[in-house]
Amino acid sequence: MKGTVLYAPGDIRFEDRETPTIEEPTDAVIRMAATCVCGSDLWPYRGLQPTNGPTPMGHEYCGFVEEVGGAVRSVKPGQFVVGSFATSDNVCPHCRYGYPSACAQREFITRAQAPFLRVPLADGTLVATAEAPSGDLIPSLLTTSDVLGTGWFAADAANVKPGATAVVVGDGAVGLLAVLSAKQMGAERIIAMSRHEARQNLAREFGATDIVAARGDEGVERIKELTGGIGADSVLECVGTQESMMQAIRSARPGGFVSYVGVPHGVKLEGAELFFAHVHLHGGPAPVRRYLPHLIDLVLQEKINPGKVFDLSLPLDQVAEGYRAMDERRAIKTLLRP
Ligand SMILES: [Zn+2]
Ligand SMILES: [Zn+2]
User: Fold this and answer.
1) Which partner from 78, 111, 169, 299 sits 20 to 30 angstroms from 211, CA to CA?
2) pLDDT in tens, 208-220
3) Do both 18 and 102 map to the same domain?
């Protein structure tokens, strides 16, 4: 088969690779229905995160089980499955406390932009649907694998409750689906911080009630104005830069909650400012596996349509163009079909 490999910043190749096989009795191999490019893939693509030589790419996936190892019990060949970008056994203490993305046996999936993928710990990692979903639901099901699961964690970790005022920092696909998630959790007011019209429109469609285009201190000032000088109950940080993190912390009211799901790059927090901010902080790699059954259900019942974040769909062999389009912000998120 061919798969996606990052050779150097800006250099994505779709090239011959070994077709994955069962290596451990707990593995499954799946045939990809669809995969995609993640905002976090852009960090190494832009050279902002070092890589060690040629790096296979992709961690968001859904597809049909092709083969399972001898110890796999919960999924079988032919079933449609979605899994988290982080594998989990679902039985260790971290998993049982609800943090499968901190599983003692965790591995990060890194080869999903390919027609076949080996998934370790298949029983704990994969969730099967009762029947094969119709093709038009595949993009939305794919989002549950990371981007929606991460947006959902952003809303959950920021304690979004019915009636709350939520602020979403970041208008990438995760930020947009954090808006959708906050809406699902009953936020009354959702302020999306975005300066791009297409993204603002999608944010509104997903439930944003206000848009703030200003950033940094000016953005914080706007949030204060919109909340009667108080600050927001919940702030969802979906970028991972110093500016976005400080914007998030300073936009929350004393006693408010700040979640952070953007992979941090160079973020440093100052103790004294944190001390006086009086905010709850909770973030990290999203425990997607915990949310998968519920999110898959919401999609299958067509209560949500998170697949709308894909505004570019390409054949998998054009993956390099998919990265370019996202890097140049011509696309919010690229869907790839084998
Ligand atoms: Zn991702
Ligand atoms: Zn575990």
Assistant:
1) 299
2) 999 999 999 999 9
3) yes
What CATH number is given to the structural domain containing 214?
3.40.50.720
**Within its chain, how far is the Cα of 24 from the centroid?**
27
* CA 109 / ligand 1 centre spacing (Å): 10
User: Closest-lying ligand to the alpha carbon of 149?
Assistant: 1
pTM of the complete model: 0.97
* Nearest ligand to the C-alpha atom of residue 124: 2
Range of the domain at 266: 151-283
223 lies in the same domain as 197: yes
Ligand 2 ion: residues within 5 Å (CB): 88-89, 92, 95, 103
Alpha carbon of 146 to ligand 1 centroid (Å): 5
Average confidence (pLDDT) over 320-337: 97
Q: For 130-177, write each residue's pLDDT tens digit.
A: 999 999 999 999 999 999 999 999 999 999 999 999 999 999 999 999
Q: How many domains does the chain have?
A: 2
